Amino acid sequence: MHQQASHFRTNMALALPVMAGQIGHILTGVADSVMVGQLGTVPLAAVSFANSFLVIPLLAGIGIAYGLTPLVAKAHGQGKVAKTGRLLKNALWVNGLVGVLFSLVVFLMEPLAEALHQPRDVINTARGYIGVVGFSIVPFMLFMGYKQFVEGRGDTVTAMRISLIGNGLNVLLNYLLIYGWWGFPEMGMTGAGVATALSRVFMFVAIAWVVHRGPKYAVPMRAFREDRPKRKHSLAILRLGVPSALQYIFEAGAFAAAAFMMGSMGVLPLASHQIAINLASISYMAASGFGATATIRVGHFVGQSDWHTLQHAMVNLFLITLGFMALAGMVFYFGRFALPALYTVDQNTLSLAAELMLIAAFFQLSDGVQVTALGALRGLGDVHVPTLVTFIVYFVITLPAAYYFGLVLNGGAKAVWVALAVGLTLSAVFLTFRFFHRLARHQAEGIGK
d(Cα 414, Cα 416) in Å, to the nearest integer? Predict the structure, then answer.
């Protein structure tokens, strides 16, 4: 009992700051949707459309950045402090190049929207927002390099504080630039994009200043300055980061494809989907804090070759995840009418959004477990089979089912969301089994001892 209490305290000490920071990130999207939603149903649908484009390169970039965390965590667990600074230098080069590449991808994606028969007024409204936020992927990726470095070393508070300040700045700038307060230009939806870009630049500059000036990072920063980027470190980051990026792409791609299906049904289903997915993404990003904690703790214990303690720590973390997501499900269930009302006053949109929120309430447990399992597997360095699992679950099973039941059989938005819920559940079951199977094998073979 004492050991479980100790694991609970450690897990929560790591997870809570990450969760706060992650929720802060997603709340910028929520703030954009809520504030832009006051301009009308078409702008709200345009936010959904724009985020469907932006979320894939953004999450892919996050996945690549996550390749640094287990490497830093393992080196930190082994006491190789200087090596963590060398890894950071390589990560910044990798992240910077990836950020530029993904920004270019965003600018080239607009013809795809027309090919998918999205409403013309929605495309026109979203164009400026997409361009500005697409550019901001570069400073965001550089911020993520520093963020994963400090978190891999067990410092989850620094990135949280900077993220929260940056997100507060984003909300303030939203008010100034969307509505034209205090003499600022009234830019509408494009103003929300400018606010997001400026807040991301601030977060990158702030965390870089803290890491390079902070005394607790003096040893790794000395190695950072003295060493040149090494091909082997960059490849090691990419070997973990690219499969992690693909995992995010497959899951985010399924939800983005769902948004396109909604768009083909009309503005009302698309706006309702945006509300429900916006709210569901809050609990998902909070749960990703447990996934990040799993990566950090597994990486530390792998570095120490302590498989027994690792098992106890992870069982404790999975139980915490289940408890948190059960609470989130209850909030969604009882708040399925009140929460969507924050976005719009249109009764038809509110009614459909409430039905989608009911489905979201029931897939919370699966959503939390699968993201924690992915983080734990990443800490073990096991990324290839989980990537294959996510591809099969979302692209071979979920999307065909969503299209068939939602569009072919005219099941509508609810049928699409039921298919997504089934996909999340399958992912949670397979990935959790995979992690504990791999862990049992490590324990039996005594790998690393």
Answer: 5
- Tokens (6 digits) for 112: 């795809």
Q: Which residues lie below 8 Å from residue 205, measured CB to CB, with a gap of 6+?
A: none
In whole angstroms, give the CA distance from residue 5 to residue 69: 25
pLDDT averaged over every residue in the chain: 83
Question: What is the structure's pLDDT at 268?
Answer: 81
CA angle (359, 363, 365) in 5-degree steps: 150
Query: In this structure, are residues 83 and 223 in contact, taking their beta carbons and an 8 Å threshold?
Result: yes
Arithmetic mean of pLDDT, 118-145: 76
**pLDDT tens sequence across 312-351:** 888 999 999 999 999 999 999 999 898 888 877 778 888 8
- Taking the C-alpha atoms of residue 403 and residue 264, their distance in angstroms, rounded to an integer, is 11
pTM of the model as a whole: 0.76
Counts of helices then strands in the chain (DSSP H, E)? 18, 0
CB 261 within 8 A of CB 343: no
Number of domains observed in the structure of the chain:
1
Residue with tokens 């459909």: 352
For residues 429-448, average pLDDT: 82
Domain that holds residue 90: 2-445
The total number of residues written for the chain in this structure:
449
